[in-house]
Amino acid sequence: MLKSLFACGVLGVLLMPVQSQQISVCVEDDGDLRVDCQIEPKANKISSYEFSWSLGTKEALINTNVSGSASEAQFRDKSEVVELDPHGYRMTLKGFTETLPHNTTYMCKISGQVESINVERDHLAPCSAVSMFLKSPWSWITSLLLLVYHTHS
Ligand SMILES: *[C@@H]1O[C@H](CO)[C@@H](O)[C@H](O)[C@H]1NC(C)=O
Ligand SMILES: *[C@@H]1O[C@H](CO)[C@@H](O)[C@H](O)[C@H]1NC(C)=O
């Protein structure tokens, strides 16, 4: 009983940083910028998304389907949004990775809830590495469970 409580606690701690990270930014293999926004929309709200970034004090709207607001012309045809499973949206932006300013704040808004993350250009990770990182808690848990199992059999 105590042991399983302990295992639950460890599991919770390992999963928490992943769960609370509702926005992530990375660079795809082909050089496109990818912003994943995994805010869970409230059940009673119309689902809508808005991706933007802020360079210093200047905010630019990259892609949205909020009725009444429009993204900046320079991003049309360059950005694309797809739905993520089980919830959230992924925005990809072509052709800006090379010219990103040093320090950028990426923001996304889903049904009125906002998440933001500040990433320096030099710290932009390739998406393949990010997905490895996101999977790693599971390999940790698997090893842990195997260890517990083995020491008791
Ligand atoms: C925005 O797009 C999503 C997914 O394509 C759709 O479910 C939602 O209704 C759209 N929202 C608006 C305000 O058009
Ligand atoms: C980047 O910008 C954010 C928000 O404006 C600021 O808090 C942070 O200190 C800046 N980082 C660097 C390294 O300039």
Automatic annotation (TrEMBL):
Its main location: membrane. GO terms for biological process: cell adhesion; integrin-mediated signaling pathway; positive regulation of focal adhesion assembly; regulation of cell migration. It is found in: Cell membrane. InterPro entries: THY1. Residues 1-20 form the signal peptide. Keywords: Cell membrane, Disulfide bond, Glycoprotein, Immunoglobulin domain, Lipoprotein, Membrane, Signal. One of its GO terms (molecular function) is integrin binding. One of its GO terms (cellular component) is focal adhesion. PANTHER family: THY-1 MEMBRANE GLYCOPROTEIN. This is Ig-like domain-containing protein. It comes from Nothobranchius rachovii (bluefin notho). The lineage of its organism: Eukaryota, Metazoa, Chordata, Craniata, Vertebrata.
